[in-house]
Design brief:
Shape: elongated
Number of helices: 35
Radius of gyration: 36 Å
Oligomer: single chain
Strand order of the largest sheet: 1-3-2
Strand content: under 5%
Distance between the termini: 56 Å
């Protein structure tokens, strides 16, 4: 999973390749398609260890595939690729090999493994696969490999034994590496094997290790090409060129214009390079060079961070870049193929808000278009259209839906176009006070059923049942309710929504009568316990149907006898337990958040109603122990009121979500972490604030009137907050001489 995550975050190749794919995060958009250039489709700092490690992973995966193909041909296509993988890479099924030379080579591969392993010094001390390992025998191993170069009849195997010997010598810093290379380099002539590239990489590395730095870098640059598998080595070893003297010497070694352009190109790949100057250098040599297109494409791809949504919680805010120097230079360029230049000018002028100029270059690029390039032109044309929108009506919704429908048929960049559409239009809907479509736009790829209240649900169902939907409305509904899972989840959520709005009779109609053990509720909403925050598994379990039915029966009893002590108590307890602070919040919301609750009005309604009925029960209760229990519940309800009244609004696609307790928020009400350099404030609960704002009446009543009850004594043992509350009062009175005004 870690490997998948790293590829997801740091490699943009699949996301811009025709054939689909997705971008690493919801806040990024890329509208270009994959180019077949070295490093073309990777943005950012190529020296990042995560980028490098993933590139090596992909490289190893690719050479494994190519190596297996070579072996398959060598075996006369007799074995499947899976069988060859078992033989070559897993050392299995060796009895299948009939060719004695190949069998000897496979055995030798296994024999030499510990000498090139990064753990070879460990093996020397503790042995390899139970056999004593002696590094001093390395020269003998190399000698055996070279002898086989001389004796095997297969040129294919000669080259591979040559590689093994050279690698053994290089990895172990032996002195004879160059002599081995010079003696057997004739085997490289007329070879198309991937082993040829491996040996070239070893040779270049040997030169650098021997102190011939510039020559070694030069040899590495020979790997920089579309037909090479280890082309990444050309860039990652270019770091050895550190001085002007070395650079000039490297330039003097170039045998032709193409090689000199390679040097400028590789140097330009550095994240700190002046790419514009390198483009000018390349143009002076050959304005039609493919490497000009490579660098310009990478510049354009990197520039698409212009579209990224600012994420100050994790990354620095976006820096506004000035593309005028590039625009000025590119306007002066005349090449045989102007497509990449015109595409870049169209984008850069768009960034600079020169929309008419951007359209001019876009139209020019359309005339030069071929193949998949048209998809990225369609993307930019659509981006310009979206950015020109200031309002959305049904006509515009039909326009957007029509355009989007066509764009979703093209194989490139469609995921970014889909996400970018709703990123752009959601704020227009918000300005127009269209809460439903703002919500749908914000949640287009993930239907957050937890954020749907009764109003949203009814609006959503009305939109789903609307006869003459606009094309965009159809698109929204399709994506919002795109899976059977979401539809089932939404159906279940509606029961929660009805419960949250205290619409028990409607909820009962949607709940099946059932006696299955797994359908029994975890907690009893009519129970109150001191311990476990009231979340104590009840001995007698009820189904949701039985629970709602009992609630309705209690409501009916209260209509007949409004002063019934037990019915008032049970109803008040149920209402409290159905609130965010009760034991059965899961019956009124889909997922219980640890830091926010939905719908302030509904929470207030539940808590205020529970207080009302607890007071009625208290007024007519006779037993003092029972009374103390009711007063404690009134105290808990009062504390919940404090939380509700002092909560902060957050924007989660629904107006009525509120943060509570000890969470850091920014000025916009969004939950964030304690980030250095970012201004934060706390929504912090303290007993001082609680007391100074007039809360605490029922805790005071509990102490003054019921401290002789067993229930109160049990409370003091189990609930530290009661002792802390009274200690706080004493401290405040002593230190501040504050007159405490309890409601």
């Amino acid at each position: 999973m870690l490997r998948v995550l790293l590829l997801f975050v740091f490699f943009y190749t699949t996301s811009i390749a025709c054939g689909g794919g997705f971008w690493p995060d919801d806040y990024q958009f890329r509208f270009l398609h994959k180019r077949n250039f070295e490093f073309a489709n990777i943005t950012g700092d190529l020296t990042s260890s995560r980028v490098y490690n993933d590139l090596i992973y992909e490289y190893n995966d690719e050479i494994k595939k190519q190596n297996i193909k070579e072996w398959k041909a060598q075996f006369g296509n007799f074995y499947s690729e899976k069988e060859i993988e078992d033989i070559i890479y897993k050392n299995k099924e060796l009895s299948k090999i009939k060719n004695e030379e190949i069998r000897d080579y496979i055995d030798f591969l296994e024999y030499q493994k510990p000498y090139i392993s990064s753990d070879r010094w460990y093996y020397q001390k503790f042995g390899y696969k139970g056999v004593k390992f002696d590094m001093s025998k390395l020269p003998v191993v190399i000698k055996k490999a070279l002898k086989r170069v001389e004796t095997v009849s297969s040129r294919y195997l000669k080259l591979r034994y040559f590689f093994i010997a050279l690698r053994l010598a290089h990895y172990n810093n032996l002195d004879n590496t160059l002599q081995i290379y010079e003696k057997y380099k004739y085997l490289l002539k007329n070879s198309n094997s991937i082993v040829k590239d491996w040996i070239q990489g070893l040779y270049a590395g040997i030169l650098i290790k021997k102190g011939e730095v510039v020559k070694g870098v030069y040899e590495f640059t020979k790997l920089f090409g579309e037909d090479k598998y280890n082309w990444h080595l050309a860039y990652y070893n270019f770091k050895y060129i550190k001085t002007d003297e070395q650079w000039n010497k490297l330039l003097s070694m170039a045998k032709n214009k193409e090689e000199k352009i390679k040097f400028y190109t590789i140097r330009a790949l550095n994240v700190k390079a002046n790419v514009l100057e390198e483009l000018k250098n390349i143009t002076k040599i050959d304005k039609n060079s493919k490497f000009f297109d490579l660098l310009l494409f990478r510049t354009l791809l990197n520039s698409q961070d212009f579209f990224d949504i600012s994420m100050p919680f994790y990354y620095d805010s976006k820096v506004v870049k000035n593309y005028e120097p590039f625009i000025s230079y590119l306007k002066s360029i005349k090449r045989d193929n102007m497509y990449m230049v015109d595409l870049t000018l169209a984008y850069f002028n768009f960034y600079q808000k020169n929309i008419d100029v951007s359209k001019k270059y876009l139209n020019k690029a359309y005339k030069e278009v071929s193949g998949d390039d048209i998809h990225e032109l369609n993307a930019l044309k659509y981006i310009i259209y979206l950015n020109n929108l200031t309002k959305i009506d049904e006509k515009i919704e039909d326009e957007i839906g029509t355009k989007l429908e066509k764009l979703m048929l093209q194989p490139c960049n469609k995921n970014s176009l889909h996400k970018y559409t709703f990123y752009k239009i959601k704020d227009i809907y918000k300005k127009q006070n269209n809460e439903l479509k703002y919500f749908l736009s914000k949640n287009i790829d993930y239907t957050n059923v937890n954020a749907i209240n009764l109003e949203k649900y009814n609006e959503l169902k009305a939109l789903e049942n609307k006869q003459n939907k606009t094309k965009l409305e159809k698109y929204m509904i399709t994506h919002t309710l795109k899976s059977e899972y979401v539809r089932i989840e939404l159906k279940l959520a509606y029961t929660n929504i009805l419960m949250n709005n205290l619409m028990f009779e409607e909820a009962l109609k949607r709940v099946k009568k059932t006696t299955k053990k797994e359908d029994k509720l975890e907690f009893n909403i009519f129970n109150n316990y001191i311990v476990g925050n009231n979340r104590v598994h009840s001995e007698k379990k009820y189904t949701l149907y039985e629970t709602i039915k009992k609630l309705i029966d209690i409501q009916n009893n209260l209509k007949k006898n409004p002063n019934s002590t037990m019915d008032n108590y049970l109803y008040a307890t149920a209402l409290y337990n159905l609130s965010y602070w009760g034991n059965s919040n899961s019956l009124t919301t889909v997922y219980r958040s640890n830091y926010y609750f939905k719908e302030k009005d509904n929470e207030l309604k539940k808590i205020n109603l529970s207080i009302k009925h607890f007071k009625k029960a208290l007024k007519r209760a006779k037993n003092k122990e029972f009374k103390s229990k009711i007063v404690y519940m009134l105290a808990k309800s009062e504390l919940a009121l404090y939380y509700i009244n002092n909560a902060k609004v957050i924007d989660s696609g629904i107006k009525t979500n509120f943060i509570h307790e000890n969470y850091i928020i920014n000025d916009y009400g969004n939950l964030i972490g304690n980030i250095k350099g970012y201004e934060v404030k706390k929504a912090n609960f303290t007993y001082e604030d609680y007391i100074e704002n007039g809360y605490g009446k029922f805790l005071n009543d509990l102490k003054e009137k019921y401290q002789d009850t067993n229930y109160y004594k049990e409370l003091l043992k189990e609930c530290g907050f009661i002792t802390y509350y009274f200690d706080t009062i004493d401290i405040m009175q002593y230190e501040h001489s504050i007159k405490i005004n309890i409601k």
